[in-house]
């Protein structure tokens, strides 16, 4: 690794990835790979905070890696790896648990949401989830973390924990900055635009999968709820449906919302929805094709994971050593 700034981010293999994951995270991963030293992790340890089927979890771990690659991440340039194959994440996660207050964890909105959704399994891991995420980032002294809006609170916690540790033991961790895209940071559900688009949603019409076929994507956009009125104008409060579609279109075409508004001045909702559907489908089509090819070659995916884990291990070991030494563990 050079002396470029460092990037870390991760995606959970807890479901099929959506357009939200793509616009909020994956697409930006690719844009950063030339200017930064990047580590992109498949965070399987995080995913077991919700019960997973073992066989499906393995398949989805490959699927996230295949999508990283299909979205254009170069496995030689970036460290692409599986979290459970690098022991430093769990080790630093445990240590940092002892520097994180329950009061801080109680404030995490994702914990509150997920405990409502999985009321029969509110486990300790779900509660301390953000500490493991802090460990992921701090383990490599990442300067920047590309994420969607929903992860911002977790990143703030990581910063606080890092600052606390540094204050007690002297400079140890770099304080990471979030990298949140201007549009696409919070893609909303197509049927309920007041709710985030989520891969774990029960209603399949709420989300677009990155790997969905063209016809299905267009059909879902056609069905997307729109608001009263007939003009394509950006108004999050009164027109959440149209505003969400405008942001999706803006993000995928790298235009501003104002430009999108101008482009569709005088158009009807139906035509606009078709345009968004077509553009999204055309963008995702080559990714799906490459993804399907890659999923046929598990040996190759294993080799990428293996090389990634070796590199991540050698990058993380000095940090574990330093933290353990500072805390007072015998080395
Ligand atoms: P996860 O797996 O839920 O989502 C992966 C990334 O996708 C973003 N995202 C969205 N962006 C825009 N609109 C949406 N509707 C949308 N849904 C999801 C997320 O913000 C995220 O960037 N805790 C993380 C995984 C993680 C991590 C980390 C991330 C573990 N350790 C260290 C960064 C750094 C998560 O659950 O993401």
The fraction of residues assigned to DSSP E strands is 5-15%
Helix content: 40-55%
Q: Residue-averaged pLDDT, rounded?
A: 96
Total of helices: 13
SSE order, one letter for each helix or strand:
EHEHHEHHHHEHEHHHHH
User: How far is it from the N-terminal to the C-terminal residue, by CA?
Assistant: 26 Å
Largest sheet data: 3 strands, parallel
Determine Rg (CA atoms, Å): 20 Å
Strand order of the largest sheet: 1-2-3
Number of β-strand runs: 5
Provide the low-confidence segments as ranges. none
Structural class: mainly alpha
Tell me, briefly, the overall form: globular
Task: Catalogue the ligands.
Answer: tryptophanyl-5'AMP
């Amino acid at each position: 690794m050079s002396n470029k700034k460092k990037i870390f981010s991760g995606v959970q293999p807890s479901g099929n990835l959506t357009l939200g994951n793509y616009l909020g995270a994956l697409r930006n991963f690719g844009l950063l790979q030339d200017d930064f030293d990047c580590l992109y992790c498949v965070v399987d340890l995080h995913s077991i905070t919700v019960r997973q089927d073992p066989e499906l979890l393995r398949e989805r771990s490959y699927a996230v890696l295949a999508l990283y690659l299909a979205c254009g991440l170069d496995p030689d340039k970036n460290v692409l790896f599986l979290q459970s194959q690098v022991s430093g994440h769990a080790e630093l996660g445990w240590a940092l648990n002892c520097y994180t207050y329950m009061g801080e964890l109680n404030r995490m909105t994702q914990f509150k949401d997920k405990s409502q959704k999985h009321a029969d399994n509110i486990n300790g891991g779900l509660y301390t989830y953000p500490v493991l995420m802090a460990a992921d980032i701090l383990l490599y002294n990442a300067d920047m973390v590309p994420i969607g809006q929903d992860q911002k609170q977790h990143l703030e916690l990581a910063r606080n924990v890092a600052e606390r540790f540094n204050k007690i033991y002297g400079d140890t961790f770099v304080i990471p900055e979030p990298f949140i895209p201007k549009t696409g940071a919070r893609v909303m559900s197509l049927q309920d635009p007041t709710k985030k688009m989520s891969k774990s949603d029960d209603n399949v019409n709420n989300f677009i999968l990155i790997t969905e076929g063209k016809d299905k994507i267009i059909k879902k956009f056609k069905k997307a709820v729109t608001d009263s009125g007939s003009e394509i104008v950006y108004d999050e409060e009164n027109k959440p449906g149209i505003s969400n579609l405008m942001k999706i279109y803006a993000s995928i075409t790298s235009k501003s919302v104002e430009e999108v508004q101008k482009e569709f001045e005088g158009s009807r909702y139906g035509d606009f929805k078709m345009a968004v559907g077509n553009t999204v489908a055309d963008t995702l089509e080559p990714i799906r094709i490459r993804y399907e090819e890659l999923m046929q070659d598990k040996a190759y995916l294993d080799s990428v994971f293996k090389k990634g884990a070796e590199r991540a291990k050698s990058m993380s070991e000095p940090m574990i050593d330093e933290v353990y030494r500072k805390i007072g563990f015998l080395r």
